[in-house]
Design a protein that fits this description.
Length: about 450
């Protein structure tokens, strides 16, 4: 959802057909629809039916298939291992290009029609609606039943748009409170407690701060919107015309946001993931609000001094974070839809999710993996799982793309320039509405 970032190289496919022939629904080799016809032919040859208990047996990689996949820098080590295993099993070479998940749908829209995009992308679920609306990805049609049976309800919700399953869930994400046990004996229960500690620890002249997080990023600040009843879109995130960022409940939560400036007296632009990571690892930041993608590095840096806990309470209320599902999607313009679907299923299965958890501390979506001792007995992952219980999935409607810029401009106005929270959020909401009603999800 990490959000909070949040992808620029792609492999070039040889083009021997026109752009029209390479578009969705036009396979130059057999003029069949990528999303259904190839797989239905294979299914018929194998007995057909809708039971996907052995769905991978229903399709085989195309002759000469070779895949390119996009992956984040932080999780590339996982994909290198999974790609190697996939090649060993299916004899399909896989090339990895580093592209941040939050950028992949935009890049897919730019490079997909010309055949320059990856065959398999990994995106945060809130980008799904935009991808579907632009016909950029294929449905998860072959592995529908397997995917639904094996993953949590929240994961399936995140991978589904307008009633149809598109994604292959591989991990859940929310953020929690990292803290240095050598500096705090236990995690604070409320942001008032965080502020009280910070008054004894923060020293701007020494670049030391009680807590640090990306104060200009709505993803990490949703707790200061939703904990007292605020929201983004109404009707469970589906109503673009009901925006609650400036509601009375949201402004109540933002009171805590404003108070925290005393604990972190620096400009929002002076905080980025690299700076924050360095200061936390060195002990100059005592607490960091961040996602599971930082877990492996923080464990290496702090060892037994690393603690993870659910977010502190906001204005006396349990903190509500944003959550997201990271999903694989198959490019609608791929020359090798069978191979791409097989890869997406393979890289999101039980063994793959166990490996991803081991390497980067991800929160699994596979129900068996969640019950595995590797995950269940992990004090760090269990803390993220507890916070996830008090999280809200990011909306996946296309208009979600119109939220980030206005909201991420309003927060620095409040933090850096002492703008009135209601006035700043009123402005942001109007900008979002203008985008929704004009050039939605641009």
């Amino acid at each position: 959802m990490k959000m909070n970032k949040l992808m620029t190289l792609a492999a070039v496919f040889s083009m021997t057909v026109s752009l029209t022939a390479c578009g969705p629904g036009n396979d130059a080799s057999n003029s069949t629809n990528y999303g259904t016809t190839n797989t239905s032919k294979e299914s018929a040859a194998n007995g057909g039916g809708t039971d996907t208990g052995s769905a991978s047996a229903q399709i085989t990689p195309e002759d000469g298939a070779a895949l390119t996949v996009w992956e984040s820098k932080e999780e590339r080590a996982f994909t290198e291992q999974i790609a190697k295993q996939f090649t060993q099993k299916y004899n399909v070479p896989v090339k990895i290009e580093e592209v941040a998940p939050s950028d992949q749908v935009t890049k897919l829209s730019q490079d997909g029609p010309s055949g320059l995009a990856a065959d398999v992308a990994v995106i945060p679920h809130d980008n799904l609606g935009k991808a579907v609306a632009a016909s950029l990805i294929l449905p998860n049609d072959v592995f529908t039943e397997e995917t639904k049976k094996n993953n949590t309800e929240a994961a399936i919700t995140g991978a589904t748009f307008d009633g149809e399953l598109f994604g292959y869930p591989r991990s859940a994400e929310t953020y929690a409170l990292y803290y240095n046990k050598s500096l705090l004996k236990e995690a604070p229960k409320s942001f008032d407690d965080v502020l009280a500690f910070s008054k004894t620890f923060t020293d701007k002249s020494k670049n030391k701060y009680g807590i640090m997080w990306e104060v200009g990023n709505l993803y990490f600040n949703y707790m200061f919107i939703a904990s007292t009843g605020g929201y983004l879109f109404g009707d469970n995130g589906t109503n673009k015309d009901d925006i609650g960022l400036n509601s009375a409940q949201a402004i109540e939560s933002l009171k805590a946001f404003v108070k925290m400036k005393e604990a972190l007296p620096i400009k929002s632009g002076d905080i980025n993931p690299d700076i924050k990571r360095s200061l936390f690892n060195s002990g100059d930041v005592a607490m960091d609000i961040n996602g599971p993608w930082e877990l492996a590095g923080y464990k290496e840096a702090l060892g037994d001094n690393l603690g993870v806990a659910p977010l502190p309470a906001v204005e006396g209320k349990t903190a509500t974070s944003f959550s997201g599902i990271k999903i694989y999607c198959v490019n609608a313009y791929t020359q090798y839809p069978n191979a791409a679907k097989l890869y997406a299923e393979f890289a999101s299965g039980k063994d793959a999710q166990l490996l991803l958890n081991k390497l980067v501390g991800s929160i699994p979506t596979n129900k068996e993996v969640l019950e595995d001792a590797q995950v269940k007995n992990d004090p760090y992952i269990s803390a993220f799982a507890e916070q996830a219980k008090n999280s809200q999935p990011m909306p996946s409607i296309p208009e979600m793309g119109n939220v980030w810029s206005p909201a991420n401009a309003a927060l620095p106005e409040i933090w850096d320039k002492n703008a009135d929270p209601k006035a700043a959020m009123d402005k942001a909401v109007q900008q979002i509405k203008d985008l929704n009603n004009g050039a939605a999800a641009q």
